[in-house]
Amino acid sequence: MTFTRGEPYLGFPRYLFFRRCTISTNSKDLLTNEKINAAQVRLIGPSGEQLGIVSSTSALQTAYDKNLDLVMIAPTAQPPVCKIMDYGKYRFECDKREKEAKKKQQIIETKEIQLTCNIGEHDIQTKLTAARRFLSSGNKVRTIVKFKGREMRHTEIGYTLLDRFISECSELGQCDKAPVLEGRNLTAIILPIKK
């Protein structure tokens, strides 16, 4: 096929198009009432009783007679399972349960405190105050002793400093494992004690 100048070339025929389909299992995206297009459904009543396998139109009529909604709760079953319920109330209860679950969820952050081998006494007390505050609020504390230059020859100073730091925080937290030397950093993680 040849094309002349000025004639547009479209790579695909005009009748081809692509459509993206998404299947969601979220409770907010359940099919309701007229959106249910199955021929037959397994029907469950409003109080949980089995009403058998019926056509979707008769199930919808039964739901309308009771002033409730027909909701497809198991679309992958054969035949699909539908329940007669108040869909607005169901959505409200699901949202309420999700909010309660988020409130009870506790997020634990890891805070980091850096020390050096030649740190002053007042600086240690300041870092200890910060670590105690982090541990009392329920966060992990990652304590790092950084070695610079020739300090790598005297890593025992870093170990004693870190041991002192961990023992000072022992009333609020405990170290889960021994300090680890990673390159030029000596690291320990202090976990808060659960009350």
Written description of the protein model:
The structure is a single chain. The chain is α+β, with helices and mostly antiparallel strands and 195 residues long. Helix content is 30%, strand content 26%. The chain folds into two domains: 77 residues, Ubiquitin-like (UB roll) (Roll); 83 residues, Translation Initiation Factor IF3 (2-Layer Sandwich), CATH 3.30.110. It is built from four helices and nine strands; from the N terminus they run E-E-H-E-E-H-E-H-E-H-E-E-E. Strand 5, helix 3 and strand 6 form a beta-alpha-beta unit. About 8% of the residues have low confidence.
Keywords:
alpha+beta, five-stranded mixed β-sheet, Translation Initiation Factor IF3, 2 domains
Structural topology:
Layout (H helix, E strand, L loop, with lengths): L39 E5 L5 E6 H10 L3 E6 L6 E5 L1 H18 L5 E7 L4 H16 L3 E7 L8 H14 L4 E3 L4 E3 L2 E8 L3
Parallel strand pairs: 1-4, 5-6
Antiparallel strand pairs: 1-2, 3-4, 6-9, 7-9, 8-9
